[in-house]
Amino acid sequence: MSRLAIAGAALLTLAWSAPLDPVWLQSFDAAWRIIDETYYDPAFNGVDWPAVRRDLRPRAEAASTPDEVRSAIREMIGRLGDSHFVLIPNGQTPAATRAARATSGDPGIDVRYHERTALIVGVADDGPAKEAGVRPGWLIHAVDGEPVEPALSQAAAAAGPRLGSLEAWRLLTEKLRGPIGSRAHLSLVDGHGSRREIRVERRAEEGEPVKLGTFPTLHVRTAERSMQAASGGKVGYLRFSVWLTPVDPFIARAVDAHRGADGIVIDLRGNPGGLAAMLMGVAGHFVPDRVSLGEMRTREGALRFYANPRKVAPDGRPVTPFAGRVAILVDALTGSASECFAGGMQSIGRARVFGERTMGQALPALFDRLPSGDVLVHAYADFVTASNTRLEGRGVEPDVGAPWSRGALIEGRDSALDLAVEWAGQR
Fold first, then answer.
1. Pairing mode, if any, of strands 292-297 and 382-385?
2. Residue 41 DSSP label
3. Is residue 8 predicted with pLDDT exceeding 60?
């Protein structure tokens, strides 16, 4: 072996055996301390928090790679058993995610993990999938030649019954996304059971881009229309994709447009949440008095969420909050602020909830950057409704169960929406 080769091998050995940068152990300690100081339950859900540190810190001390330290931190936060605890690696931080999403697109398909398959529940009106002939009720068998069902089933099983649908949806969404202008090769099963092979262009995500703190850029999408019940009652329908400030004027205009209707349906299916403080103003469109929807309980105390009656229309004229029936649609991807709103309105008897049990991830969270550059997402409060119902881990139980139905979608029907419209439109 040449001297150069020997020297190279020696350098490689030195690099391989180099001790891990102390910043990683500091990050473990910082993560434990942040949760110790901010977690909403001083009893830590019955978990001996100091013992968790004593148990896992030796693993962090002995780690030879950053991922081994991350594994110890993830196990540490996992022992609390709550949602909204995530460790985001430095290379996958929201800033990096924003950059990636800015150049990626999707085919305009809304999907759910349903009965162990990838079910298309919606197709964007002006999207490439609809132009290619894709319809609700179809199944996705493969994306770019890779069958999806094995990976989705594995992701769902690993996440458990409460979060299985969410994790499978995340994985499927990642598979559907790609560089803007690229074409996704979709192997589909149509409403007649026939296999379809379709190439669909990926386009930039629709909706108004909004930046919220360190979150990735989110796209706000809204929809509003008039509907009619079989009884003849008039019903207003409104839908929004996330709880962010640009949604507030849309909701105000939509409620005002349907002020004379018999009922209003608010569709929160697939809405993951956002700014919880918005609940108070939105509820005020439907509640005439300042009543509590529930409260956020922190280590220091409780923040009560009151409905603030909205008595002025967008054009400035005086109005009274909408007094007709209110129906709320939810499903397994309804989370966080959406759950707090649906559960809060349900708890005061102001709304009837239709659909599927929600995600059960109702904790507000903070973002803290660790010494390593990784970001720790951690819950700092708990939410209970006005009826003292805790939503975390439980979700909102609908008053009327109406899960997604492939048969109904193929026929052009939406089971939950149909039931909600008929109820809300009663005279």
1. antiparallel
2. -
3. no
Please count the other Cβ atoms lying within 10 Å of the Cβ belonging to residue 340: 27
pLDDT score of 339: 96
pTM of the model: 0.86
What's the pLDDT at 217? Answer: 64
Three-class SS state of 153: helix
Upper half-sphere CA count for residue 45 (Cβ side, 13 Å): 18
List of long-range contacts for 161-166, beta carbons under 8 Å, 24+ apart: 162/359, 162/360, 162/393, 162/395, 163/83, 163/359, 163/361, 164/113, 165/112, 165/113, 165/332, 165/333, 166/332, 166/333, 166/335, 166/359, 166/361
Average pLDDT over residues 341-347: 97
pLDDT of residue 364: 85
Residue 181 DSSP class? T
Kindly write down the DSSP assignment for every residue of 236-298, as one continuous string.
EEEEESSB-TTHHHHHHHHHHHTTTSSEEEEE-TT---B-TTHHHHHHTTT-SS--EEEEEE-
What is the rounded distance in angstroms from the CA atom of residue 181 to the CA atom of residue 104?
9
Q: What is the mean pLDDT of residues 229-238?
A: 96
Sole residue written with tokens 């956002």? 274
Integer angstrom CA distances of residue 126 from 58, 120, 130, 205, 230:
55, 16, 7, 12, 29
User: What's at 65, amino acid-wise?
Assistant: T
Output 167 or 198, whichever has higher pLDDT: 198
Query: What are φ and ψ of residue 179, in 5° steps?
Result: -55, 140
Range in 24-38, 179-193, 214-228, 256-270 the model is least confident about: 214-228
Give the pLDDT of residue 198.
96
Q: What are phi and psi of 404, to 5 degrees?
A: -60, 135
Mean residue pLDDT across the chain: 90
Of the candidates 23, 20, 19, the residue with the CA atom closest to the CA atom of residue 31:
23
Decide if 149 contacts 140 (C-beta within 8 A).
no
User: For residue 213, what are its two tokens?
Assistant: 């703190």
| Residue pointed to by tokens 């999207």 | 127
